[in-house]
Specification:
Pfam families: Aldo_ket_red, Fer4_17. It contains 14 helices and ten strands. It has about 325 residues and is of the alpha/beta class. The chain has two domains: about 240 residues, NADP-dependent oxidoreductase domain (TIM Barrel, Alpha-Beta Barrel), CATH 3.20.20; about 60 residues, no CATH class. Helix 7 crosses helix 9. The model has no long low-confidence stretch (mean pLDDT about 95). Bound molecules: iron/sulfur cluster (SF4) (2 copies).
């Protein structure tokens, strides 16, 4: 089993981390079965967030009896000190624990620092002093915020999107974390569903020994695939390298990563799926995206008010309304 140490936290875990966002979509019973199977097969790192509805509750229900044997990372998206404490207390209660191993600021638009007037970083320090959290982390999609956090020396871990579609700048960030001894947790290791070969995803990330991928798992079949890598970790081969190169070519340019930071949309458009529908239709079985339900969701694009909110919030500076329009045009050709 391959392991990774997260910077200077001293946390060493199996390279397969469990991303607990998707378990929101399944029942408590199904989630419990999945979490327990992951634990029984050596997965020790579980990443969740206050914002993932009942994900923390499900982890608490499934893993409270093995709490001391696992690492729990969760997040607060609060921008106030009051909200920070409320989130932390709720997380502790949902997770059935008295401490969180890594407490992360959830994609703030800036890098919280002591004395910046928000009081947020000071709250982290206080929570650490009280023993309610062990390590301070931050998650982000914005390269400049992520770099600032790593360079500040204030954060023990960074969670950032990293997969085989990474740019040179993303790779520089991973190397900067290594140099500064900051743990690097890879979010979107499957690029929100765009990457369909997990062996290629695993082998690519394994080349960066300081990274810990967290796989968003919702189905037992997906979990089994990652568990099989405990004993047989995929390594980079000429065939995989050629495949990744082809993927880079086919996904060159601007594409929607499905992160959802542009939402909510006042016209009710599910931007994070609709703006990448063309890719999804070609990379996964298309029938699931052509149902009457999805057709209705795609047609909502016609109601776009061109308010520009989504463009302002997109960390990849995409022209989202334009992207949506193109995706709708393409989608309609599939229906003919
Ligand atoms: S520009 Fe259109 S898609 Fe974007 S937030 Fe406004 S209404 Fe929604
Ligand atoms: S348009 Fe931008 S912010 Fe919205 S889901 Fe796609 S990548 Fe994320």
């Amino acid at each position: 089993m391959k392991t990774v140490t997260l910077g200077n936290t001293g946390i060493t875990v199996n390279r397969n981390g469990f991303g607990a966002l998707p378990i929101q979509r399944i029942s408590v019973e199904e989630a419990g079965k999945l979490l327990r199977k992951a634990y029984d097969n050596g997965i020790r790192f579980f990443d969740t967030a206050r914002a993932y509805s009942d994900s923390e509750y499900k982890i608490g229900q499934a893993l409270a009896d093995v709490r001391d044997d696992i690492i729990i990372a969760t997040k607060t998206a609060s921008t106030t000190v009051e909200g920070f404490w409320k989130d932390l207390e709720t997380s502790l209660s949902m997770l059935k624990t008295d401490h969180v191993d890594i407490y992360q600021f959830h994609t703030p638009s800036f890098c919280p620092k002591p004395g910046d007037g928000t009081g947020l970083y000071e709250a982290m320090l206080e929570a650490k002093a009280q023993g309610k959290i062990r390590h301070i982390g931050i998650t982000n999609h914005r390269l400049h915020v992520a770099r600032e956090a790593v360079e500040s020396g204030l954060y023990e871990t960074l969670q950032f999107p990293f997969c085989y579609l990474a740019s040179e700048k993303d790779i520089e960030l991973v190397n900067l974390c290594k140099e500064k001894n900051v743990g690097f947790i890879c979010m979107k290791a499957l690029s929100g569903g765009l990457i369909t070969r997990s062996d290629a995803a695993y082998a690519y990330l394994a080349q960066y020994e300081n990274t810990l991928p967290i796989w968003g798992v919702q189905r037992e079949k997906e979990l089994d695939e990652f568990l099989s890598y405990n004993d047989n970790p995929p390594v980079m081969t000429d065939e995989l390298a050629a495949f990744i190169e082809k993927e880079h070519e086919s996904l060159a340019g601007d594409f929607c990563r499905g992160c959802g930071y542009c939402m909510p949309c006042p016209a009710g458009i599910e931007i994070n799926q609709c703006a990448r529908m063309s890719l999804m239709l070609r990379r996964a079985p298309s029938a699931a995206w052509l149902t009457p339900e999805w057709q209705a969701k795609m047609e909502l694009i016609e109601n776009c008010k061109h308010c520009g909110q989504c463009m302002k919030k997109c960390p990849y500076t995409l022209n989202t309304p334009e992207l949506l329009r193109k995706n709708l045009e393409d989608y309609r050709t599939f229906l003919k």
